[in-house]
Amino acid sequence: MARKRRIKGSGTIAKWNKKLELKRRALLSGRGGEDVRSFPKIDIHRARRWELQKGVKNSIRFPFALIVLGAVATFANIAEADLGSLRVLFLGHSSSHHNSNLYYPILRDALTPKLIEFEYATTVDSLNTENLKKFDAVLLFANHGKISPEQFSALNEFVESGHGFVPVHCASACFGSSPDFIKLVGGRFKSHKSGVFRASIVLPNHPVMAGFSEFETWDETYVHADHNTQGRTILMERVEGDLREPWTWVREQGKGRVFYTASGHDERTWNDPGFQKLLFNGIVWSVGEPRRTEWESMRKK
Which of 119, 129, 197 is nearest to 163 (CA)? Predict the structure, then answer.
């Protein structure tokens, strides 16, 4: 008498299918309260071979179809969110001074729920034409000393083609050997002391100032040099006696936009909701009208 060939693991598969069949019947009768995610993990290939041998063709199809449909819906929602989010390259560095490795997650966690999606990098190599195609804006917070002509060209073309550039705090001290980079930012860091202060809004009707209130924090008291006033608009000043130091400004370059603020030395500022709101507004403004309109329509859904 020929022995029946037993598929390895078919006993376990049979138990799985029995459980799945009970779940299927419960769902059909309206009594199934379990989430599809609680279904057991199945070796689909073994299960399929077993059901063909036994002639049980419908035992796993119904719950499996639910899993597939649920996955499709989830991926569709993710794809829609990715399409609507503003994509920002956060270019930091590996140094513990101006510790972008600590401050990047603070900003990411604050702005991701508002459909701002970040990618983090620590080397200037990320400033290349192919990589920048993925983004709507570049945020720079770092102490990088050198930028190659090719890297600056990629960044400059990125901005002038209609994208955003958001240099923050120490970014105005980067790439001192590149006069064109200083012009792009709108000014260069010269010196600082430190203290607790509140920068003053001087242009409250600008879109970047919408819904924003002045905030007090400890920070470095930057003084700037090599100002490029072409296409630049001052939004905030740090007032100290007779000194009115440009503090937060915007620029337009080609079809693109630049937003800069001198705030942001350490976590005392990065954790401040006022600072987070300022960066949020600056990023949204920098990406330009068409992209912002698309993003705003997605946020309303």
Answer: 129
